[in-house]
Amino acid sequence: MCLHQTTVFDFSILRDVRPRRSDCEERLLASFGRPLETVRSSNCLEGLLNSPSMRSTMDTPRSERFPCFEPHRMFAEAWYLLRKSLVMFRGKPVGTIAANDHSEEALNYDQVFVRYFVPIALAFLMNGEPETVKNFVLKALRLQSNWEKRIDNFSLGKGAMPASFKVLHDPIRNNDKIMADFGESAIGRVAPVDSGFWWIILLRAYTKSTGDQSLAEMPDCQRGIRLVLSLCLFEGFDTFPTLLCDDGFCMVDRRMGIYGYPIEIQALFYMALRCAKLMLKPEGDGKELLERVEKRLQALNYHIRSYFWLDFEQLNNVYRYKTEEYFHTALNKFNVIPYSIPDRVFDFMPMKGGYFIGNVSPARMDFRWFCLGNCIAILSSLATHEQEMGIMDLLEERWPDLIGEMPIKIAYPALEGHEWRIVTGCDPKNTRWSYHNGGSWLVLIWLFTAACIKTGRPHMARKAMEILESRLPRTIGQSTMIVRLVGILVRLQSNS
Predict the structure, then answer these.
(1) How far is residue 256 from each of residues 88, 269, 359, 437, measured CA to CA in Å?
(2) What per-residue confidence (pLDDT) applies to 2?
(3) Integer Cα distance of 165 and 163 in angstroms
(4) What single string gives the DSSP state of each residue in 220-287?
(5) What keywords appear on the UniProt entry (predicted)?
(6) FRET partner for 44 with CA separation of 20 to 30 A, picked from 146, 236, 244, 420?
């Protein structure tokens, strides 16, 4: 399936709308052999969880295209663990915990993270269960509006969305309350830039999947979108349409040298603007805001495609740049010194293929590959059709480096030696090939899969899933639930 290059990837096309095949479900659950009804339920999930199937098998992406097949036991186990991780607030599910790990009590793994709930929310939407997603959207919206966002004596902007939140239950009063984290409790005390973008994208996904426009049209949601955009569209001293960010503002939430204009934030910004443009109502100041959104989209589109893109031809152009050029006719607009290009880039860049580099700012180009930014660039159509194909060509050509033995590497190459000490501040968690420094992140498999489907290369996603399944331990956790759900999608899509 290859969508038109100007179309944002529509996850609603993956939703099954036909009746489920109960005979397949019964066989699956009989082989699973686990009492699924023991999961904690709420009023809105009671009927769902009491169902023998728990909607966990054939009511999944594109199932109407295929005859009944013998599904894998791990699929039911993934849905079981997914539902077990639901976080309840006053009887309603509002998200899922980041990880079911009690070994590090001081950490925040038991919280609902905005960025990590998105793929799980998409799974619920594709499975015809939008209520949890709606609850999450509304809860994050209320935290945006009603929470005092202070770090020491400084207040964040009104539009800031939380990085995460935690539900605290008082057994004596039988009451729940929420504690939100806007960066004041985070390691490094950095506020999340990406949360607001993910919230807008998820709101659009909910609208497309359910056909329900009423949620996005609510005055509170309209105000929430405006507040997020107000943080991004202000007129200041910046000469670029890209967003200036500090280290740790996104999924790479530790010091990794991504300060400036990281591709992850720019791609998410672009996708959020496109989604907001489709949901904003023109009433009041909405018309003026929509005009500002459109102008920013055009400027951002040109800037990223022109200055962030690197292929073999562009690499040679950069290598031959002249420096200290003046006036608008300058080719080396950022005064990048060719000597600063690492030797490894010439060995890494194939004749066929390309990618959006990690960062572009005055006298600096970060030539590292970042998976999330490039995948979002494909899904949002920030990349041209040729650039989309180039990214996928690069992934195929440099599969061992970018995918690796345990898919998928968040960044490449890893920082090491003196560079690691200077850039990360000797961070022991980000040693080479660990965590954000070239580590493998299973959660990225959904973005990679969606990019493969959009560009017509589902075989690449299937190959990654086969590697992943062969290496996953038998006892799985929260981080691998969505992986196995996506695996079913990959098999279905690659057979179509």
Answers:
(1) 35, 20, 12, 8
(2) 44
(3) 7
(4) HHHHHHHHHHHHHS---S--SSSPPB-TTSSSS-S-SS--BS-HHHHHHHHHHHHHHHHH---TTTHH
(5) Carbohydrate metabolism, Glycosidase, Hydrolase
(6) 146
CA 9 – CA 3 distance, rounded (Å): 8
User: Which residues is 366 bridged to in the sheet?
Assistant: 359
Task: Tell me how far the alpha carbon of residue 64 is from its chain's centroid.
Answer: 27
pTM across the whole model:
0.84
Question: How many other β-carbons are positioned within 10 Å of the β-carbon of residue 399?
Answer: 15
Q: At 244, phi and psi to the nearest 5?
A: -80, 125
Report how far residue 336's alpha carbon sits from residue 306's, in angstroms, rounded to the nearest whole number.
15
Residue 190: predicted pLDDT: 86
Q: Residue 236: left if φ>0, alpha if ψ -120 to 50, beta else—which one?
A: beta
Under a CB-based contact definition with an 8 Å cutoff, are residues 384 and 415 in contact?
Answer: no
Residue 483's pLDDT is 53
pLDDT of residue 109: 81
Q: Are 127 and 120 in contact (CB under 8 A)?
A: no
| Cα distances (Å, whole numbers) of residue 376 to 90, 121, 407 | 35, 17, 17
Q: Which of 390, 460, 383 is nearest to 8 (CA)?
A: 383
Going from the C-alpha of 350 to that of each of 284, 301, 385, the distances in angstroms are 51, 25, 19
pLDDT computed for residue 7 by the predictor = 60
pLDDT of residue 362: 93
Residues 6+ apart with CB under 8 A from 188: 247, 248, 253, 254, 255
pLDDT < 70 positions in the chain: 1-72, 101-106, 473-496
| Calpha distance 427→6 (Å, rounded) | 40
Given a contact cutoff of 8 angstroms between Cβ atoms, the answer to whether 75 and 488 are in contact is yes
Instruction: List alpha helices for 398-472, DSSP H.
Output: 399-402, 417-424, 445-454, 458-471
Per-residue pLDDT at 21: 41
Q: Burial letters for 402-441: b for 16+ Cβ neighbours within 10 Å, e otherwise?
A: bbbebbbbbbbbbbeeeebeebbeebeebbebebbbbbbb
Residue in the structure block whose two tokens are 């339920």: 41
pLDDT on residue 71: 55
